[in-house]
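pinned: reference chain
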Amino acid sequence: MLEREDVTIYVEQRLARPASQRVSPRTIAHAVYERTEGNPLFMVTVMDHLLAQEELVPAEERLTDTAALEKVAGAVPETLRSFIEEQFQRLSPEQQQLLEVASVSGAKFSVAAVAAGADMGLADAEETCARFARGRQFIGADGVVAWPDGTVSTQYAFVHALYQEILYDRIPAGKRAQLHFRLGEQTELRYGKRAREIAAELAVHFERAQDYARALPYICSAAETSYCRVACQETLRHATKGLAWIAKVPASAETEKRELLLQMLFAHTLTTLGGYHSLAIKTAYQRGGVLSQQQGDTTSLLWTLIGLHSFHTMRADLAEMRPIGEEILRLAHTTADPTILLAARTLLGATVYCHGDVAGAWKHFEHEVALSDTQKRFEARVPFLCVRAQILAALGYADQASREMHRAIAVAHEIALPFTFAYGLTEAATLHLDLFALHDAHEYAEKAVRLSTDYGLSLWLGIGLAVRGSLLVMQGQHAEGIRQISDGLGRYQATGATLQRPYLLWSLAAALWRGNQPEEALRSLDEAFSIAWDKGLRFYEPRLWLLKGEILLGKEGRRQKAKVPHPKSHILNPTSQTDAEVCFLHALESAHQQQAKMMELRAATSLARLWRRHGRATEAHRVLSTVYNEFTEGFATKDLQEAKALIAELSQ
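pinned: its structure tokens
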């Protein structure tokens, strides 16, 4: 067999003509290697077939890599098919029957299974398979397999996937269905109570035997197993297939339970992959709610509502979030499950926080600490602790916020669920970046990027990249930092989520400003304002107004003018103040209304600096000292140290 690089060299030579440059030779080479496994005869035949049929030189300007891979993956040249079938026809009827059953069994098969399916004695089947393997004809030995019932037999594998594929295709449909049923039944019998271990294999056999009632329990088991392994694409395939079978299975309470399981697995997995643009998630949770109510299962109903609320949260559908959150809280009090109450409090508190009522949000978290501490391995503790930390930071309790976030990461590490851990890491990264704890922010962002990349979690990857980019900008690496933030923003937007888009746009604006691109920064901020106001995400307003003021102040210093967006409130006559001062006062007012003390301190600091420059030191001292004196901790943070130093200067 040829190595991958040998196949690449050959394919590139065959494609070295102008018309063929519409495709990527290395992409095709990879696909040809996967299809032929380096078999020289198969490789040459497949390439001859593809080029003769002009499969790689379509009329379009360029064949996409995906389309090219599909064409190669489906290529079965007639000459190759004839070659394999000619070999097959030379065999005895018994040998043909055994190989046909083997092709139905799969790319790998045990002799015991094939013997049962072909109605042959085990010894005869073993001898026939051994003879094929010695001559490397069709199959080769692949170890020994022991079944739970004590049966031990040799395992074989087709020497090439094309052998199995072509032999399988030549079996009449009716006979194939019979063989699948026989193999599924025999395998199920031999595995007994451990049949769940090979649920995916049994689901395929009974599906192709068109016995969907028998296949459904196994596809449910397969979906659960892949979900626990965080094999997201595999889980989606199993869940989608199982849901399609529901209509083909007699209605019953058991069928409804299985549909509920599949709907939840489908919705959870699509959410994990960041598919918030897909309303299929909403539909799945709603259908799950109907099934839960039909079954009188309040706990399941609550989890469907929690999933639905989370979906709307990430899309920033605040109008739909609040009633769902209130219904969750009402139902949670009717159960004896403290974990559901914890999740309900977190979701409802997060909704209030999004509206910009920081103090109101805190009421949902301050009395739940003891409850959360009792749930040592419960997944919902992580978002509870993360949101609690963010609210503490907003209220001005930086030290408590940092400690709470470290607790959240410890719990997430203990639970070891990739999606939850990645979420916790990005929350920790953004919190510590905001508190200028740059070492911790860097550590959490790097871990978030690695974990999210490994598991394909685009949502958290986007935020992790943005934090990492912001840190690079702070180090003076403006171009690379802006590139990473833009990349993160693009990945986040592609998921269909909206909740953190204003924050990511703010991060990009801050980076562009530091990179001396004020006009681009203002455009990014304007987009962030538009989303925040359109979605009612008022908790972003102080942050956005403050940066707007800093950018305009820099432009004003160069005697440039910029238009300030129309404010939601009127705290002064804009024509009587500088544009930057207008923004700082808006930031100060909105932060004060929200009781977001940290942002109020930052706004007061920026305003005090501006007023000092304009000879209004007394007013500046009064405003800044009033806010500063409300803090009881966090005095080692950059914000409070700068405010303290400025107050001292203003006192002179």
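why pinned: Confidence is low (pLDDT under 50) at residues 58-63, 371-377, 566-576. The first strand starts at residue 108 and ends at 110.
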